[in-house]
Amino acid sequence: MSKFLWNYLLVIPTVFYGLLFLPSVANADVTTQETVPTKIISPKPVVTQDQESANSLTEITGQVTSVSQLSDVRPTDWAFQALQSLVERYGAIAGYPDGTFKGNRALTRYEFAAGLNAALDRLSELIASNTADLVKKEDLETLQKLQAEFAPELQQLRARLDSLEARTAEVEANQFSTTTKLLGDAVFIVADTFGDRANNRPANDTKDDTQTVFGYRSRLILQTSFTGKDQLSTILSSNTIPNLTNSTGTAMTRFTFDQGTEEGVYLSQLVYRFPLSKNATIWVGPRALQPAIYAPTLNSSIGGLNGAVSRFATFNPTVYRPGFDGAGAALGYKFSNQVQLSLAYTADNTQASRASGEGNGFADANNIIFSQLTISPSRQLDVGLAYVHKYFGTRTGFNLTGGTGSAFARNPFEQNSTSTDNFGLQFNWRASRRFVVGGWFGYTLAHQESGPNNDATIINGALTLAFPDLFKEGNIGGFIVGVPPKVTSNDYRPRPNAASREDPDTSLHLEAFYTFRVNDNVRVTPTFYVITSPEHNDANNAIWVGALRTTFSF
């Protein structure tokens, strides 16, 4: 057979397979770019562009012997005769598993190059079969032009595949664990307060004696997956950021990430998540199973490592802050992209782990029963309707409002056994790519469970404005204005003829911050906030808090 004929055989299969494979590759690329509103998400393996191209090729079925086998190809299609010729003359066409050709899909030059490379396999088969007079001269000329035009892309594709194999081998050789990923973050903060201390004690101790503080919080996060869809989260923490309640006379000044009672390095979270079905996810944890883990808080632009610094501004405190670290279980069920339900029962993990004693054990400990229906009528708007029942035993050191708000709101009946019914309305509206409006309103009915039959009403609310990519991509600015938890009515009297534990006035929380993205791992956030009439008492002067936070993540 002449050299001309052998070269001739290189033409048609390549042209045909390029036309066939690349629409399928383009289809795979389009599919992966679709997004769904964030709610309950199971972890999925990361897929690179090269892997997507390779995976899409595996979706093609075997050889098609007649163009009529392709259900989406009609005799009226402009390319029908070309497809028919490729099938009947060369027997080198394949379709999708559903019997379609998908000929209208767009493709990139890289995708065409991938399909052209795959066509060489068919070329080898035709050469081996010694089939003569199979192609025409014009086909050979077309193929030669295609080979010349896409030679750089084919070479680059081969180089990228070689590089990917080398990188994969390096990752496998140096990875922390075959099942566990190590993450971490560190927060440095320099802060000070200004203004007289809230005088909520008998002594005249309103003089501001606070000093500038420099503290940190560091965390090592171990994320372990045993099936590729589950995740065990283990967090080790160390924290020296002070709780400002004592120094300022009010919990309204607290930071969102200040220290608790633990010292040194401690286990701050241990939670396991796994899918129960396609639409249902389960969380189980003996340590720090908080509502913010299993339910959308609808304040992602303001809360978190890159958002507001204050404790109150993070999210609705009476709904998403139980007042203790939780041990229990939660369920998230996604009815559709527009509706999902979150349910949970958690108990104080310290009390839940004790086998004896009053108020101990998983069922008798301080606990919450959580429920929230999240509705997303559009990709821009999310609304959350929450109901949370809380119970706290006598003299268990509890607070009803998650460590913020007035002293009366945290303990309307002092340390007598208390139950609360908490209702929350939260919303988040992405008005544009650079402007997000959010907020919440919380309404709490508290009932004294031990002693006299007393009731109290507590409210709180906030409006938040966020400006993503403000001045520079990756930065964010924000404003928060709100009313920290306040007791509006209360039947309880600590002593006969004593004043009720009811807040006489109204405090405002005003906060502004700007987070500057230095790079993917470092962000700097200057922030300040002011509390007017601290403790909802006009007799107290405003307290200002200024802070500079630097966050490192890896």
From TrEMBL:
Alphabetical list of Gene3D superfamilies matching this protein: Carbohydrate-selective porin OprB
Signal peptide (residue range): 1-28
Keyword Signal on entry: yes
One MF term in the entry's GO annotations: porin activity
Keywords for this protein: Signal
Pfam families (UniProt xref): OprB, SLH
GO annotation terms (biological process): carbohydrate transport
GO cellular component: membrane
Highest taxon listed in the record's lineage: Bacteria
NCBIfam families the record matches: por_somb
UniProt name for this protein: Membrane protein
